[in-house]
Design goal:
28% of the residues lie in helices and 22% in strands. It has helices at 20-26, 62-66, 156-159, 172-175, 201-207, 209-226, 239-255, 265-268, 276-292, 297-309, 311-314, 370-376; strands at 3-7, 10-14, 45-49, 69-70, 81-84, 92-102, 108-114, 125-128, 137-140, 150-154, 179-186, 322-324, 327-329, 334-338, 343-344, 351-352, 357-361, 366-368. Helix 5 packs across helix 6 (209-226). It binds protoporphyrin IX containing FE (HEM) and FE2/S2 (inorganic) cluster.
Length: 377
Amino acid sequence: MSHVLSFEDGHVTAQEGETVLNALLRAGLDPAFSCKSGSCQTCMLQAERGDIPERAQRVLPMHLRRLRYFLPCRCVPTGAMQLRRPHPNDLVVGCQLCEASLLEDGRISLTFETGRPLKYRSGQRMRIVTGAEDEPVLTLTSCPERDLLVTGVLEAADALPLAPELQGTLGDEEIFGYPFELRGPFDDVPPRELPAPDADAALWDELGGDVKVRAVMEAFYAKVYADERLSPFFVKVTRERAIDKQFSFMKQCVTGEKIYMGDRPRNAHHWMIITHELFDHRRALMHDTLVEHGLGDTLIGRWTAYEEYFRPDIVKSAKLPRYLGDQMVASSGVTREVMGESGMCDQCQGEVAAGETVLLHHHMGTISCGRCSAASA
Ligand code: HEM
Ligand code: FES
Protein backbone atom coordinates (compact mmCIF):
# COMPACT_ATOMS: atom_id res chain seq x y z
CA MET A 1 0.00 0.00 0.00
CA SER A 2 1.27 3.49 -0.80
CA HIS A 3 0.34 6.49 1.30
CA VAL A 4 0.29 10.20 0.57
CA LEU A 5 2.46 12.38 2.82
CA SER A 6 1.79 16.12 2.86
CA PHE A 7 4.57 18.35 4.10
CA GLU A 8 4.46 22.14 3.94
CA ASP A 9 3.50 23.02 0.36
CA GLY A 10 4.38 19.63 -1.14
CA HIS A 11 3.31 16.05 -1.03
CA VAL A 12 4.73 12.67 -1.98
CA THR A 13 3.42 9.11 -2.11
CA ALA A 14 5.53 6.85 0.09
CA GLN A 15 6.34 3.54 -1.54
CA GLU A 16 5.86 0.13 0.06
CA GLY A 17 8.23 -0.16 3.05
CA GLU A 18 9.76 3.30 2.52
CA THR A 19 10.32 5.52 5.56
CA VAL A 20 8.72 8.95 5.77
CA LEU A 21 12.18 10.52 5.77
CA ASN A 22 13.28 8.74 2.60
CA ALA A 23 10.02 9.60 0.84
CA LEU A 24 10.38 13.30 1.72
CA LEU A 25 14.01 13.31 0.62
CA ARG A 26 13.13 11.56 -2.63
CA ALA A 27 10.55 14.26 -3.35
CA GLY A 28 13.06 17.04 -2.59
CA LEU A 29 10.93 18.37 0.26
CA ASP A 30 13.99 19.28 2.33
CA PRO A 31 13.37 17.63 5.71
CA ALA A 32 16.11 18.06 8.34
CA PHE A 33 18.03 14.86 9.12
CA SER A 34 21.39 13.54 10.21
CA CYS A 35 21.85 9.95 11.48
CA LYS A 36 18.87 8.38 9.66
CA SER A 37 18.76 5.76 12.39
CA GLY A 38 16.70 7.21 15.22
CA SER A 39 19.40 8.48 17.52
CA CYS A 40 20.05 12.16 16.75
CA GLN A 41 16.37 13.26 16.65
CA THR A 42 17.24 15.89 14.05
CA CYS A 43 14.52 14.66 11.70
CA MET A 44 11.67 14.98 14.22
CA LEU A 45 8.36 16.15 12.71
CA GLN A 46 4.84 16.61 14.00
CA ALA A 47 1.96 14.66 12.47
CA GLU A 48 -1.03 16.96 12.22
CA ARG A 49 -3.07 14.10 10.83
CA GLY A 50 -2.61 10.36 10.32
CA ASP A 51 -1.61 7.34 12.40
CA ILE A 52 1.88 7.22 13.91
CA PRO A 53 3.44 3.75 14.25
CA GLU A 54 4.57 3.12 17.82
CA ARG A 55 8.17 2.43 16.74
CA ALA A 56 8.49 5.99 15.41
CA GLN A 57 7.77 7.55 18.80
CA ARG A 58 9.31 5.06 21.22
CA VAL A 59 12.45 7.03 22.03
CA LEU A 60 10.74 10.43 22.39
CA PRO A 61 9.72 11.90 25.75
CA MET A 62 6.05 11.62 26.64
CA HIS A 63 5.22 15.32 26.19
CA LEU A 64 6.45 15.20 22.59
CA ARG A 65 4.58 11.96 21.91
CA ARG A 66 1.39 13.57 23.17
CA LEU A 67 1.98 16.47 20.79
CA ARG A 68 2.22 13.86 17.98
CA TYR A 69 5.94 14.25 17.34
CA PHE A 70 7.72 11.27 15.79
CA LEU A 71 10.96 10.34 14.02
CA PRO A 72 10.44 10.09 10.24
CA CYS A 73 13.59 8.00 9.82
CA ARG A 74 11.96 5.27 11.97
CA CYS A 75 8.50 5.62 10.50
CA VAL A 76 7.08 3.47 7.72
CA PRO A 77 3.65 5.04 7.27
CA THR A 78 0.49 2.98 7.66
CA GLY A 79 -1.79 5.62 6.13
CA ALA A 80 -1.86 9.17 4.77
CA MET A 81 -0.10 11.72 6.98
CA GLN A 82 -0.02 15.48 7.17
CA LEU A 83 3.29 16.65 8.57
CA ARG A 84 4.90 19.82 9.75
CA ARG A 85 8.21 20.93 11.15
CA PRO A 86 8.41 21.17 14.95
CA HIS A 87 7.32 24.38 16.58
CA PRO A 88 10.37 25.92 18.28
CA ASN A 89 8.37 26.30 21.48
CA ASP A 90 8.26 22.50 21.70
CA LEU A 91 11.96 22.02 20.98
CA VAL A 92 13.89 21.93 24.21
CA VAL A 93 17.57 21.13 24.32
CA GLY A 94 19.52 20.24 27.47
CA CYS A 95 22.69 22.35 27.93
CA GLN A 96 25.74 22.36 30.20
CA LEU A 97 27.29 25.66 31.11
CA CYS A 98 31.00 26.25 30.40
CA GLU A 99 31.36 30.00 30.97
CA ALA A 100 29.15 32.78 32.32
CA SER A 101 30.42 36.35 32.46
CA LEU A 102 29.19 39.91 32.82
CA LEU A 103 29.90 42.01 29.74
CA GLU A 104 30.94 45.67 29.90
CA ASP A 105 27.54 46.78 28.66
CA GLY A 106 25.87 45.01 31.58
CA ARG A 107 24.58 42.04 29.60
CA ILE A 108 25.45 38.44 30.46
CA SER A 109 27.29 36.10 28.14
CA LEU A 110 26.75 32.33 28.45
CA THR A 111 28.87 29.72 26.69
CA PHE A 112 27.63 26.15 26.78
CA GLU A 113 27.48 22.71 25.22
CA THR A 114 24.21 21.26 23.95
CA GLY A 115 23.06 17.68 24.57
CA ARG A 116 22.20 17.18 20.90
CA PRO A 117 23.45 18.97 17.78
CA LEU A 118 21.73 22.35 17.66
CA LYS A 119 20.82 23.71 14.25
CA TYR A 120 20.97 27.51 14.52
CA ARG A 121 22.22 30.70 12.97
CA SER A 122 23.99 33.53 14.71
CA GLY A 123 21.43 36.14 15.75
CA GLN A 124 18.61 33.68 16.38
CA ARG A 125 17.01 33.71 19.81
CA MET A 126 16.30 31.01 22.35
CA ARG A 127 14.33 31.07 25.56
CA ILE A 128 15.81 29.81 28.81
CA VAL A 129 13.27 27.31 30.08
CA THR A 130 11.73 28.40 33.37
CA GLY A 131 8.09 27.55 32.71
CA ALA A 132 7.12 31.23 33.19
CA GLU A 133 5.09 33.15 30.63
CA ASP A 134 7.99 35.42 29.73
CA GLU A 135 10.99 33.15 29.73
CA PRO A 136 14.29 35.08 29.39
CA VAL A 137 15.51 35.45 25.83
CA LEU A 138 19.08 34.53 24.88
CA THR A 139 20.41 35.91 21.59
CA LEU A 140 22.89 33.51 19.99
CA THR A 141 26.18 35.18 19.07
CA SER A 142 28.41 32.23 18.15
CA CYS A 143 28.71 30.89 14.65
CA PRO A 144 27.89 27.19 14.10
CA GLU A 145 30.35 26.86 11.20
CA ARG A 146 33.22 28.17 13.35
CA ASP A 147 32.53 27.58 17.04
CA LEU A 148 32.31 24.22 18.80
CA LEU A 149 30.53 25.67 21.80
CA VAL A 150 27.42 27.85 21.62
CA THR A 151 27.46 31.38 23.04
CA GLY A 152 24.55 33.72 23.67
CA VAL A 153 23.85 36.97 25.51
CA LEU A 154 20.93 38.05 27.66
CA GLU A 155 19.89 41.23 29.41
CA ALA A 156 20.91 41.28 33.09
CA ALA A 157 17.38 42.35 34.10
CA ASP A 158 15.93 39.31 32.30
CA ALA A 159 18.33 37.02 34.18
CA LEU A 160 17.03 38.02 37.62
CA PRO A 161 14.66 35.05 38.00
CA LEU A 162 17.42 32.62 36.94
CA ALA A 163 19.77 30.57 39.10
CA PRO A 164 22.93 32.39 40.32
CA GLU A 165 25.00 30.17 38.00
CA LEU A 166 23.40 31.94 35.01
CA GLN A 167 23.92 35.48 36.35
CA GLY A 168 27.55 35.81 35.28
CA THR A 169 28.83 36.62 38.76
CA LEU A 170 30.18 33.25 40.01
CA GLY A 171 33.60 31.74 39.38
CA ASP A 172 34.29 29.19 36.62
CA GLU A 173 34.57 26.21 39.02
CA GLU A 174 31.21 27.00 40.56
CA ILE A 175 29.31 27.15 37.28
CA PHE A 176 31.11 24.59 35.12
CA GLY A 177 28.69 21.85 33.99
CA TYR A 178 25.62 23.61 35.39
CA PRO A 179 22.61 22.09 33.56
CA PHE A 180 19.85 24.23 32.04
CA GLU A 181 17.47 23.98 29.13
CA LEU A 182 16.81 26.15 26.10
CA ARG A 183 13.76 26.37 23.87
CA GLY A 184 13.95 27.24 20.17
CA PRO A 185 15.77 28.62 18.23
CA PHE A 186 13.41 31.33 16.96
CA ASP A 187 14.00 33.84 14.19
CA ASP A 188 11.74 36.30 15.87
CA VAL A 189 10.49 35.32 19.29
CA PRO A 190 6.73 35.08 18.98
CA PRO A 191 4.72 36.30 21.94
CA ARG A 192 4.00 33.31 24.11
CA GLU A 193 0.36 32.37 23.99
CA LEU A 194 -1.23 33.19 27.29
CA PRO A 195 -3.01 30.36 29.04
CA ALA A 196 -6.73 30.15 28.47
CA PRO A 197 -8.94 31.72 31.15
CA ASP A 198 -8.95 29.74 34.38
CA ALA A 199 -10.40 26.27 34.13
CA ASP A 200 -13.68 25.73 35.95
CA ALA A 201 -14.41 22.00 35.86
CA ALA A 202 -17.79 22.38 37.58
CA LEU A 203 -18.97 24.60 34.73
CA TRP A 204 -18.71 21.69 32.26
CA ASP A 205 -21.19 19.70 34.32
CA GLU A 206 -23.46 22.70 34.76
CA LEU A 207 -23.47 23.11 30.99
CA GLY A 208 -24.68 19.50 30.73
CA GLY A 209 -21.40 17.61 30.25
CA ASP A 210 -20.08 15.95 27.09
CA VAL A 211 -23.41 14.90 25.64
CA LYS A 212 -25.07 18.28 25.91
CA VAL A 213 -22.05 20.30 24.77
CA ARG A 214 -21.57 18.06 21.75
CA ALA A 215 -25.24 18.54 20.86
CA VAL A 216 -24.70 22.32 21.14
CA MET A 217 -21.68 22.08 18.82
CA GLU A 218 -23.62 20.04 16.28
CA ALA A 219 -26.48 22.50 16.23
CA PHE A 220 -24.08 25.48 16.13
CA TYR A 221 -22.10 24.17 13.15
CA ALA A 222 -25.33 23.30 11.32
CA LYS A 223 -26.03 27.05 11.51
CA VAL A 224 -22.46 28.01 10.57
CA TYR A 225 -22.40 25.76 7.51
CA ALA A 226 -25.74 27.18 6.38
CA ASP A 227 -24.64 30.76 7.00
CA GLU A 228 -23.69 32.65 3.87
CA ARG A 229 -21.06 34.78 5.65
CA LEU A 230 -19.38 32.06 7.72
CA SER A 231 -19.66 28.99 5.48
CA PRO A 232 -17.10 30.23 2.88
CA PHE A 233 -14.37 29.94 5.52
CA PHE A 234 -15.16 26.25 5.97
CA VAL A 235 -15.13 25.00 2.36
CA LYS A 236 -12.10 22.78 3.00
CA VAL A 237 -13.16 21.59 6.47
CA THR A 238 -15.64 18.81 7.12
CA ARG A 239 -18.36 19.59 9.61
CA GLU A 240 -17.32 16.60 11.75
CA ARG A 241 -13.77 17.99 12.02
CA ALA A 242 -14.98 21.46 12.96
CA ILE A 243 -17.26 20.00 15.64
CA ASP A 244 -14.59 17.70 17.06
CA LYS A 245 -11.92 20.42 17.19
CA GLN A 246 -14.20 23.02 18.74
CA PHE A 247 -15.59 20.53 21.24
CA SER A 248 -12.18 19.36 22.47
CA PHE A 249 -10.78 22.90 22.46
CA MET A 250 -13.63 24.23 24.59
CA LYS A 251 -13.54 21.20 26.87
CA GLN A 252 -9.84 21.81 27.46
CA CYS A 253 -10.45 25.52 28.16
CA VAL A 254 -13.28 24.83 30.58
CA THR A 255 -12.06 21.72 32.39
CA GLY A 256 -8.29 22.15 32.04
CA GLU A 257 -7.95 18.55 30.77
CA LYS A 258 -5.26 18.33 28.09
CA ILE A 259 -7.34 16.72 25.35
CA TYR A 260 -7.16 19.21 22.49
CA MET A 261 -4.82 18.45 19.60
CA GLY A 262 -4.68 21.20 17.04
CA ASP A 263 -3.57 24.72 16.36
CA ARG A 264 -3.97 27.51 18.88
CA PRO A 265 -6.54 30.04 17.63
CA ARG A 266 -3.95 32.53 16.39
CA ASN A 267 -2.40 30.01 14.01
CA ALA A 268 -5.69 28.28 13.13
CA HIS A 269 -7.20 31.54 11.88
CA HIS A 270 -4.04 33.19 10.60
CA TRP A 271 -5.29 33.63 7.04
CA MET A 272 -8.89 34.57 7.84
CA ILE A 273 -9.80 38.22 7.71
CA ILE A 274 -12.42 38.44 10.42
CA THR A 275 -13.92 41.77 11.50
CA HIS A 276 -15.35 42.47 14.95
CA GLU A 277 -18.73 42.55 13.28
CA LEU A 278 -18.28 39.05 11.82
CA PHE A 279 -16.99 37.79 15.15
CA ASP A 280 -20.13 39.26 16.79
CA HIS A 281 -22.28 37.58 14.16
CA ARG A 282 -20.76 34.21 15.06
CA ARG A 283 -21.21 35.01 18.72
CA ALA A 284 -24.92 35.70 18.11
CA LEU A 285 -25.31 32.32 16.37
CA MET A 286 -23.63 30.63 19.34
CA HIS A 287 -25.85 32.58 21.75
CA ASP A 288 -29.02 31.46 19.91
CA THR A 289 -27.81 27.86 19.97
CA LEU A 290 -27.10 27.94 23.70
CA VAL A 291 -30.55 29.45 24.36
CA GLU A 292 -32.18 26.76 22.22
CA HIS A 293 -30.48 24.17 24.42
CA GLY A 294 -32.05 25.61 27.52
CA LEU A 295 -29.03 27.40 29.00
CA GLY A 296 -29.66 30.55 31.03
CA ASP A 297 -27.94 33.93 30.83
CA THR A 298 -25.40 33.22 33.56
CA LEU A 299 -24.13 30.00 32.00
CA ILE A 300 -24.10 31.59 28.55
CA GLY A 301 -22.06 34.49 29.94
CA ARG A 302 -19.52 32.12 31.47
CA TRP A 303 -19.22 30.16 28.20
CA THR A 304 -18.88 33.33 26.14
CA ALA A 305 -16.04 34.60 28.33
CA TYR A 306 -13.87 31.72 27.10
CA GLU A 307 -14.57 32.48 23.45
CA GLU A 308 -14.16 36.24 23.92
CA TYR A 309 -10.70 35.71 25.35
CA PHE A 310 -9.52 34.67 21.88
CA ARG A 311 -11.04 37.64 20.06
CA PRO A 312 -7.67 39.48 19.79
CA ASP A 313 -6.12 36.39 18.16
CA ILE A 314 -8.89 36.02 15.63
CA VAL A 315 -10.14 39.49 14.65
CA LYS A 316 -7.78 41.22 12.21
CA SER A 317 -7.73 43.27 9.06
CA ALA A 318 -4.78 41.51 7.42
CA LYS A 319 -3.49 37.97 7.29
CA LEU A 320 -0.96 37.00 9.92
CA PRO A 321 2.14 34.96 9.23
CA ARG A 322 1.98 31.39 10.37
CA TYR A 323 4.82 29.84 12.36
CA LEU A 324 6.16 26.72 10.71
CA GLY A 325 9.18 25.22 12.39
CA ASP A 326 11.55 28.07 13.19
CA GLN A 327 10.21 30.26 10.43
CA MET A 328 7.39 32.68 10.03
CA VAL A 329 5.68 31.77 6.77
CA ALA A 330 3.42 34.21 5.04
CA SER A 331 1.08 31.75 3.36
CA SER A 332 -0.64 33.95 0.88
CA GLY A 333 -0.83 34.29 -2.85
CA VAL A 334 -1.18 31.79 -5.63
CA THR A 335 1.31 29.80 -7.66
CA ARG A 336 1.02 27.48 -10.63
CA GLU A 337 1.81 23.90 -9.67
CA VAL A 338 1.94 20.60 -11.49
CA MET A 339 -0.32 17.98 -9.89
CA GLY A 340 1.68 15.05 -8.48
CA GLU A 341 -1.40 12.83 -8.61
CA SER A 342 -4.92 13.14 -9.87
CA GLY A 343 -7.40 15.19 -7.85
CA MET A 344 -10.46 17.34 -8.04
CA CYS A 345 -10.79 21.02 -8.92
CA ASP A 346 -12.20 22.97 -5.97
CA GLN A 347 -14.01 25.36 -8.30
CA CYS A 348 -15.81 23.14 -10.89
CA GLN A 349 -15.41 19.78 -9.07
CA GLY A 350 -14.05 18.36 -12.36
CA GLU A 351 -11.29 15.76 -12.41
CA VAL A 352 -7.69 17.00 -12.61
CA ALA A 353 -5.19 14.55 -14.04
CA ALA A 354 -1.71 13.96 -12.63
CA GLY A 355 0.72 16.18 -14.50
CA GLU A 356 -1.87 18.89 -15.18
CA THR A 357 -0.91 22.44 -14.18
CA VAL A 358 -3.27 24.01 -11.65
CA LEU A 359 -3.46 27.25 -9.71
CA LEU A 360 -2.77 26.64 -6.00
CA HIS A 361 -4.33 29.17 -3.60
CA HIS A 362 -1.99 28.99 -0.64
CA HIS A 363 -4.07 30.37 2.17
CA MET A 364 -7.05 28.10 1.47
CA GLY A 365 -5.08 25.17 0.07
CA THR A 366 -7.57 25.01 -2.82
CA ILE A 367 -6.78 24.36 -6.46
CA SER A 368 -8.28 25.65 -9.68
CA CYS A 369 -7.90 23.46 -12.75
CA GLY A 370 -6.55 24.79 -16.04
CA ARG A 371 -10.05 25.51 -17.36
CA CYS A 372 -11.19 27.42 -14.26
CA SER A 373 -7.97 29.36 -13.75
CA ALA A 374 -7.81 30.27 -17.43
CA ALA A 375 -11.33 31.59 -17.18
CA SER A 376 -10.55 33.59 -14.06
CA ALA A 377 -7.13 34.84 -15.15
C1 HEM B 1 -15.98 34.60 13.02
C2 HEM B 1 -15.27 33.84 13.81
C3 HEM B 1 -14.60 32.55 13.40
C4 HEM B 1 -14.43 31.97 12.16
C5 HEM B 1 -14.86 32.49 10.80
C6 HEM B 1 -13.71 30.73 12.35
C7 HEM B 1 -13.35 29.86 11.36
C8 HEM B 1 -12.62 28.72 11.52
C9 HEM B 1 -12.23 27.79 10.48
C10 HEM B 1 -12.56 27.93 9.00
C11 HEM B 1 -11.52 26.80 11.04
C12 HEM B 1 -10.90 25.59 10.34
C13 HEM B 1 -9.44 25.83 10.08
C14 HEM B 1 -8.75 24.61 9.50
O1 HEM B 1 -9.13 23.47 9.82
O2 HEM B 1 -7.81 24.80 8.74
C15 HEM B 1 -11.46 27.08 12.44
C16 HEM B 1 -10.79 26.28 13.34
C17 HEM B 1 -10.80 26.49 14.69
N1 HEM B 1 -11.39 27.53 15.36
FE1 HEM B 1 -12.43 29.05 14.52
N2 HEM B 1 -13.47 30.57 13.69
C18 HEM B 1 -14.00 31.66 14.36
C19 HEM B 1 -14.00 31.86 15.72
C20 HEM B 1 -13.47 31.00 16.63
C21 HEM B 1 -13.52 31.16 18.07
C22 HEM B 1 -14.22 32.32 18.80
C23 HEM B 1 -12.84 30.11 18.61
C24 HEM B 1 -12.57 29.74 20.04
C25 HEM B 1 -12.66 30.41 21.06
C26 HEM B 1 -12.36 29.30 17.54
C27 HEM B 1 -11.62 28.16 17.71
C28 HEM B 1 -11.18 27.35 16.69
C29 HEM B 1 -10.41 26.14 16.89
C30 HEM B 1 -9.95 25.57 18.21
C31 HEM B 1 -10.17 25.60 15.61
C32 HEM B 1 -9.42 24.30 15.29
C33 HEM B 1 -7.98 24.57 14.93
C34 HEM B 1 -7.29 23.37 14.25
O3 HEM B 1 -7.87 22.81 13.32
O4 HEM B 1 -6.16 23.00 14.60
N3 HEM B 1 -12.75 29.85 16.36
N4 HEM B 1 -12.13 28.25 12.72
S1 FES C 1 17.78 11.45 11.29
FE1 FES C 1 18.59 11.10 13.27
S2 FES C 1 16.82 10.50 14.35
FE2 FES C 1 16.08 10.65 12.36
